[in-house]
Amino acid sequence: MKIDTRTKFIAIVVITTVIVITDDIIKMLATLIVGLVFTVIVRANIFREVKRYKKFVNLLIVMILVQSIFEAAGEPILTIYSVNIITTGGLIKAGMYLIRVIVIFISTSILASSSIDENIHGLAGFGLPFSFCLMLSIGVRFIPILTHEIKASYLSVSIRGIDVKKLSFSNRIKLVSIIFTPVVVSIFERARRLSQTIEGRGYSIGTIRCARKTKKLGVIDYLIILGFVVFLIMYTVY
Predict the structure, then answer these.
(1) Of 29, 51, 67, 154, most Cβ neighbours within 10 A?
(2) How many domains does the chain have?
(3) Residue 210 counted as domain residue
């Protein structure tokens, strides 16, 4: 089943908006279920996104535990020396935080289920300028390049025998400034070459562009959008 990219954007906006503004765990669970059902419909791979950001998973687990420990509301479950360590309110807070994290991964997987070109034309389909959509997609592509450049710089420092963890705070600041200077210069140089390449292929800002394939919302797209509108109305009413 091929779902239009604009439908995916609407779904992401609805589920992320609801999950951020609500404090009712029942509504959050309902939003989570809706998001998971939609990932199945668009065949999004949420586990791939979790694996991609697995370095942050441990940090998120620690933050969830902190949420459960330092919340004094509710009935105590674990008490040590008259101090409530784990309470029912803390577990509810931790569960809400976990649901929000899962919804973020769901939104990322839904967005990743479409190609960069489809996402650009999807944003342009909402009336946004094509140049803005193009710059946004290029900026997203630059993030892994920037990450790779920083890792390569730290690796080169480690190979030269410098243990970053043993440096003082002031020396770490100096090292970061030394590392980031060539990285920023490299990024600007890449951007300049990319700009020249785009201009060499005839692209100019402000011109009317056409596409070989035109995107049209189908019956399934309208039904899904209607379903999300109804879900949003039910959330505001109840």
Answers:
(1) 67
(2) 2
(3) no
